[in-house]
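Suppose you are handed only these lines of text.
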Amino acid sequence: MTGLVWFRHDLRTSDNAALSDALTAGPVAACFCVCDQQWREHDVGDRRLAFLLRTLTALQARLEILNVPLRILHAPRFEDVPGALEKLWDELQVTALYFNEEYPLNERRRDAAVAERAKRNRLDVRRYAGSLTLSPGTVRTQEGKPYTVYTPFRRRWGELVDPVAVNPAPAPQRQPQAPCAGDPLPPALGGVSHELEADAWPAGEAVAAASLERFVIERGSRYHKDRDLPAITGTSALSQHLSVGAVSPNQCLKAARDANGGQLAGDDQGINVWVNEIVWREFYRHIIAQFDHVSKGHAFRTDYDALAWRDAPEDLHAWQEGRTGYPLVDAAMRCLVATGWMHNRLRMVCAMFLSKHLLIDWRAGERFFMQQLIDGDFASNNGGWQWSASTGTDAAPYFRIFNPASQGKKFDPKGVFTRKWVPALAELPDRYLFEAPTREGVDYPEPVIEHSAARQRALDFFKAK
Ligand SMILES: Cc1cc2nc3c(=O)[nH]c(=O)nc-3n(C[C@H](O)[C@H](O)[C@H](O)COP(=O)(O)OP(=O)(O)OC[C@H]3O[C@@H](n4cnc5c(N)ncnc54)[C@H](O)[C@@H]3O)c2cc1C
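From them, the structure of the protein bound to flavin-adenine dinucleotide can be written out as follows.
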């Protein structure tokens, strides 16, 4: 009688309900499926593959301490997964399969196929909501419908999540002996070595736990003041760990609660606002779990599917390469491509610029972000893009159009961030930096479109839909 824990984007041993439960029931082996072809189809970029591999390496070391062997299966596409798992559970005489749920549509279909195959093989299938605090379907309106707007979702979520509910799962118990040998990890995933950008993006649950602790102690109370300033580290920088599951939302919320007098919404304004961000993550996961059309590339608001976006490859390239003539946008895009990171405020500015100033389909931007971001996550990325393009769950209408110059003056007033990434503007006096950066002797392009003309064009575009 062996239990098999199937790891996916839950690459941690602590607060992992699937693993802890399996270990209380009997001998346990673990596995991970390398779905490199499918990941590429889902726009997973090189730096994320390398980060995933480093996180797996750290997981394997933790599992060894628990005497849980990690088997590595190659299943290039999701449809290959049931067969690959079946072979393993035949070999190990597995009687129960344990895993934490994933919510995009392809992942749910894969899991349904695996569960069906497992049941046919008389395996017990145990599923857990490991990447969420509350399962989709448990946060509903009085009429029993899913919430489609964040603020009422947040309110209801807060009512349901009493402090006890954020207690992480029990610590996993070491088993006396491993039921089989583990596999060595591949040196590369999808052709990408674990060494890629290894210094910039350290991985694994110990790194994530240390970052969480440091954030809560050192920066948590200032979060509401600092979180919009890209020139400083005012946020937790945990999203890449959350996206591979090296840390869980429960662990984040527990740390927040412990630092806030035992409350999720207590006296510490910074922590309160940070908890709201964790709930945004939950919200977008509930959306993709309950609205299948979002995973099929459609606008959340399906009436916006009819918008005739501009086909403008040159403008798209200028945006991707940080050559729009808007310093804040260009600095942010250059930072993204060079490092795999973009600050949340700038993600909104850049996404709105592409979809509103340039009227380019938000899906082109969503895809580019996904390929570049170290924390690329379908639910949050899609949610952020659709929010910015006004096709999504945002309660505000399409006439929210950020002015990149005003955003620059407000959130990077001395231009510290902008000058770093656009060195041609390093010596430009503050008064010109965001308003009139194109000057004689400065190697910086003219704006691709003037702001007020772009704003009017966007208003007309959305009004006419
Ligand atoms: C256009 C766009 C694309 C985005 N793409 C992604 C993505 O691919 N992956 C991703 O994890 N986040 C994405 N976000 C959300 C957000 O920008 C990042 O989660 C955040 O910048 C990560 O930094 P942090 O870990 O320091 O966050 P903190 O500010 O410390 O917040 C803590 C955690 O809360 C969650 N969170 C914070 N803000 C949001 C948000 N707006 N939506 C959902 N969850 C949030 C993240 O998991 C984050 O790690 C996107 C936002 C926009 C506007």
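What can we learn from it? The pocket of flavin-adenine dinucleotide is lined by residues 227, 235-239, 242-243, 277-278, 280-281, 284, 344, 347-348, 351, 369, 373, 375-377, 380-381, 383-385, 388 (CB under 6 Å). Residues 2-129 form a domain with the Rossmann fold fold (CATH 3.40.50.620).
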